[in-house]
Amino acid sequence: MPKYDDLGRNELDSPDDAWRRADILLDAHHKLAQTHHHQNDIPSYAIERLITDLMHYAHECNKGKAVDSGECVDFDHVIADARQQFIKEREAAPELHEPLLDPNSPQRDSKFDDMQNKMYSRQLGERNELNRKQEAELKNQGPSQALSQRHDQELTKLTGKFQEERERRTREYQEARRIREELEKDERTKALGLDNTPEEGEEHG
Description:
It is a single chain. By secondary structure, the chain is mainly α. It folds into two domains: 1-98, no CATH class; 136-193. Helices cover 68% and strands 0% of the residues. α4 (110-141) runs antiparallel to α5.
């Protein structure tokens, strides 16, 4: 029987049920948002897009509310709580702690993952800085249609900048990897050619 906390949330949800719900949610979000990439193509982008929309939702909910009123949605706090909930649920299901890997799927590129994580971390810092700036303006000036439109434009511009950077960095990384792999292949071919070269004194048949 599921246990619930004081907010009515499952204290220990099934990780298997949780990721399946997320998959359905991301698929619905992909269709509603009419995004170009499906979550199966670029999972990180699909998740980021959904989280970004939730940040928009929280921003709208917070309009006209004092930051320290207790009525505002503290998104950073929500994310921190979600991470703790995730850890509790994974630890409660040790047999699922390591996901099953598809032997036919390509191996992850740790260098690419590291590059992406650093870029996402920096971009998130920039976005949080913009959120803090906009929240301060909202608190000082009060809500207005003009301010809301400007904030939306600023966020749209920043989101577009981030997407452009991600696509450019991905292209550059993949091109550099392709060149590196071709060079390594050439080196292996040359090495095999040298290994197959008859040594001095060997008879030629």
